[in-house]
Amino acid sequence: MLTVVEALQKIMDAAAPQGTRIISIEKALSHVLVDDVLADRPLPPFDRVAMDGFAVRSADFKDGAAQLAIVGQIQTGVTSETEIGPGEAVQIMTGAPCPASADAVVKIENATIDGAKVNLQEPKIKPGMNIASMGEDAPEGKVLIKKGYPLTTAGIAICASVGLEQVKVYRKPNIRVISTGSEIIAPSKQPLPNQIRDCNSYTLRTMSRAMDLDVTFMGIGEDDTGVLGNMIEEGLKGDILILSGGVSMGEFDHIPGLLAEKGVEKILHNILVKPGKPVWFGKSQNGAFVFGLPGNPVSVQTCFKVFVEPFIRKLSGHHSGENDFMRLPLSEQLISKTKRELFMPGRLSMHNNQTHIQPVIIKGSGDFANFEQSHGLIRVPLEESQIDVFSLVDFLPWGELW
């Protein structure tokens, strides 16, 4: 049976970007750039004033004070020819270009206007004060955002600032979801004692949409090979098909056999992980990828986060796609009683003004009521059965918090 590391390696080896497209920067959040974003001019493009006040010559100050003649005013966005000589100052607004003859700006709070003169108090006056020099953020041609990385909110602002209204990005895969099991019914229906409402498809759809993916719910597949086979065949018309349930070794776990019948090549089945041992992954003849996840709600959310999400990131062009774990101390001792790598729900907590991770105790893979209290997953390596309090652990946060 594969370890988590081995399974992830096989999954990630199967992923490669699937084409590109050009989209508006308004729709490009979290999309991965195909090309570097470069500064089209120096940033800032001129010596920019950092706050409202008076542009001055620092040499005019004695003991941190000066009385200067006001010779003009410079507004933001207005070209001005105003310059200052010895004993002069010009009133200036935040964001305006600083006159070449001035070498400092004294903020308005330290100024007292007296008719045509201004009294300024600035004990720490020095050249360059409150002025952002041309190009100090970035020279023309500098790479501001590297290709292979997803665009953030700040990244979109950068694109706009360098004149990019559209960007070339990698195409994101579309997702198709099927919940399986004759015991599963829609949330709108009243369940019989032997039935449970479908929640797995909502988990899969929500987590996919959080990655800005196009998701189609194919429906609930009963434990009938004919019904399930038709649903799988339709689901394989997408980029990624995700099924929940039916991948274990039970008599009615039809998914592995049906996938083989539909021409899907198995890449892996069963991983040394808890929860999620029966995870199935493969690729169809037409290039669609398939994840078969266990049917328990905790397993579904955990396996999507650990295995499916990094695969989607790499398929979407991300330079690595790998999970980004945080290293944080435990707030209490953690005991693992499994011989598999454990992903335990954890919750952020504060101890002595420091952030710690507190294990969230659940009663099994179906206990999503307590699981909901978690902020992410604590990774307990295969070889560790006990992790002591305050020890550092790998923590994988749920995306919606970060």
CATH superfamily of the largest domain: MoaB/Mog-like domain
Q: How are the strands of the largest sheet arranged? A: 7-4-6-5-9-8
CATH architecture of the largest domain: 3-Layer(aba) Sandwich
The general outline is elongated
Measured between the Cα atoms of the first and last residue, the distance is 33 Å
Radius of gyration: 30 Å
Largest sheet: 6 strands, mixed
The CATH class label of the largest domain is Alpha Beta
Overall average residue pLDDT: 94
Number of helices: 7
Total strands: the figure is: 28
Structural class assignment: alpha+beta
- Beta-strand level of the residues, as a percent range? 25-35%
Residue runs with pLDDT of under 50 for 5 or more positions = none
Helicity level, as a percent range?
Answer: 10-25%
Summarize the structure.
The protein has 402 residues and is α+β, with helices and mostly antiparallel strands. It has seven helices and 28 strands.
Notes on the structure:
The chain has about 400 residues and is of the alpha+beta class. It has 4 domains: about 5-20 and about 170-315, Molybdenum Cofactor Biosythetic Enzyme, Chain A, CATH 3.40.980.10; about 20-45 and about 135-170, Molybdopterin biosynthesis moea protein, domain 2, CATH 3.90.105.10; about 50-130, Molybdopterin biosynthesis moea protein, domain 3 (Molybdopterin biosynthesis moeA protein, domain 3, Beta Complex); about 325-400, MoeA, C-terminal, domain IV (Beta-clip). About 15% of the residues lie in helices and about 30% in strands. The chain has 7 helices and 28 strands. It has helices spanning about 5-15, 155-160, 200-210, 225-235, 255-260, 295-315, 370, and strands spanning about 20-25, 35-40, 50, 55, 65-75, 90, 105, 110-115, 115-120, 130, 145, 165-170, 175-180, 185, 195, 215-220, 240-245, 265-270, 275, 280-285, 290-295, 325-330, 335, 340-350, 355-360, 375-380, 385, 390-395. The strands form 8 sheets. Strands 7-4-6-5-9-8 form a 6-stranded mixed β-sheet, with no helix packed on it. Strand 8 (about 110-115) and strand 9 form a beta hairpin. Helix 1 (about 5-15) packs across helix 6 and helix 3 runs parallel beside helix 6 (about 295-315).
